[in-house]
Amino acid sequence: MTEPAARPVRTVGILGGGQLGRMLALAGARLGLRSVVLCPDADSPAFEVAADHIVAPYEDEDALADLAARVDVVTYEFENVPASTAAFLAARLPVRPGPRSLEVAQDRLVEKTFLAGLGIPTAPFRAVDTSADLEAGLAEVGFPAVLKTRRFGYDGKGQAKISNPDDVPAAFAAMKGAPAILEGWVPFSREISVLTARGLDGALVTFDVPENEHRQHILKFSRVPAGLAAGTEAKARAIGEAVAAALDHVGVVAVELFLVETAEGERLIANEIAPRVHNSGHWTESACLVSQFEAHMRAVAGLPLADPTRHSDVEMENLIGDEARDPTRFLAESGASLHLYGKTEIRQGRKMGHINRIRPRSLRTV
Ligand SMILES: Nc1ncnc2c1ncn2[C@@H]1O[C@H](COP(=O)(O)OP(=O)(O)O)[C@@H](O)[C@H]1O
Ligand SMILES: [Mg+2]
Fold first, then answer.
1. Within 13 Å of residue 152, how many CA atoms lie on the same side as its CB?
2. What is the CATH number of the domain that holds 269?
3. Which listed site, 54, 66, 71, 249, has its alpha carbon 20 to 30 Å from 233?
4. Residue 87 Cα, ligand 2 centroid: separation in angstroms?
5. What are phi and psi of 29, to 5 degrees?
6. pLDDT tens for residues 302-326?
7. How many CA atoms lie within 13 A of 218 on its CB side?
8. For residue 182, what are the β-bridge partners?
9. What is the mean pLDDT of residues 322-341?
């Protein structure tokens, strides 16, 4: 689809007002870009750092028309932007990343089919709509396996592990009738991710690859360098760049990868695509001259991308729920940079902020 005639970008509309929208707005402001954030939640973290905001549901066409009139381009902080919302906006002004990125990342079955089409290895997968599909799928992928809703899952929600036949009925019931995907279990030793930015002109830059450690299905730490075997980092970068190019993506895209150790060495299996800035890239704010947030805003605004060189080794730690109750203690830590999202209410499992701890860059390159 051809974009409506682009005008020079001075103001960016951001769909979604969470911490990612907040950090995008902050990064944009440094480049002189104003942000107008649209989010249904009146208490959105991004509102207080954006030039302006609109409180409205994503389906509210009057609000969307108002947003379109006030901004030069629209981007988003989350992949579940309704297709009708993206189409309504795209008829009026450029929406970046475009519809293909949303369509692929919103549905795990479309996503895995897309990855497989690029020759990128994934877990074996089967579509599951009925319990008969589940039985047939299990006969093919075997145990253990994991059943996931095709849409709307995050932080491990909408998933059920199936270790043996006894788990099958509960796993099927957990989908609550939603279309699902069955995946074979990947015996990974580590999880990594690759973050690639693609400009409007098709230029690609890729950040160094972090290793990600989850607790209770929520990202807790990202560390760079990840200490990968020679060649693995290059393979991860090639996956990020192939995905960005095939989606005709504009902005940052993250691909979550499993690292599997085999007798032949490290193998990478792609798990998930996020067509946006990603929690596993928060370290770029402190360890790179240009962060993932700035890279995304540059791309969306049609500006040149920057060199993503990392000047420091770094560990990002998410502050989740009560861990953020007394954040001042982190302020005293040397080599650490605290970032709080301004969320008023602490809830269990809620991402409240993060800390980036940097050290001089080691000679190890990956
Ligand atoms: N096929 C799989 N094999 C092994 N572990 C998996 C598999 N799928 C997901 N997991 C584990 O569950 C976590 C969450 O799954 P993911 O598909 O990334 O969903 P989301 O992050 O959207 O909740 C992964 O980071 C990984 O630790
Ligand atoms: Mg994930």
1. 8
2. 3.30.470.20
3. 249
4. 26
5. -60, -35
6. 999 989 999 999 999 999 999 999 9
7. 13
8. 126, 147
9. 95
Ligand found nearest the CA of 217: 1
Q: Is residue 273 one of the residues assigned to a domain? A: yes
Range of the domain at 330: 190-360
Handedness of CA 146, 149, 155, 160 (dihedral sign): negative
Alpha carbon distances (Å) from 181 to 23, 130, 279: 32, 11, 24
Amino acid at 3: E
Single out the residue in 165, 184, 203 at which a domain terminates.
184
Of 150, 306, 313, nearest in space to 222 by CA: 313
pLDDT of residue 66: 98
Atom of ligand 1 nearest to the CA of 148: 17
> Mutation test of ligand 1: which of 271, 273, 276, 279 has the most ligand atoms closer than 8 Å to its C-beta?
271
- In one-letter notation, the amino acid at residue 71 is V
Question: Do residue 274 and residue 334 come from a single domain?
Answer: yes
Give the pairing of strands 34-39 and 52-55: parallel
Structure tokens that stand for 349 in this block? 């499992």
Q: What's the 91 CA to ligand 2 centre distance in angstroms?
A: 31
State how many domains the chain has.
Answer: 3
**Ligand 2 centre from 210 Cα, in Å?**
14
Residue 125 reports pLDDT greater than 90 = yes
Are 226 and 284 part of one and the same domain?
A: yes
Q: Compute the distance between CA of residue 36 and CA of residue 319 in angstroms, rounded to an integer.
A: 27
Question: Does 163 map to a domain?
Answer: yes
Q: How confident is the model at residue 2, as a pLDDT?
A: 57
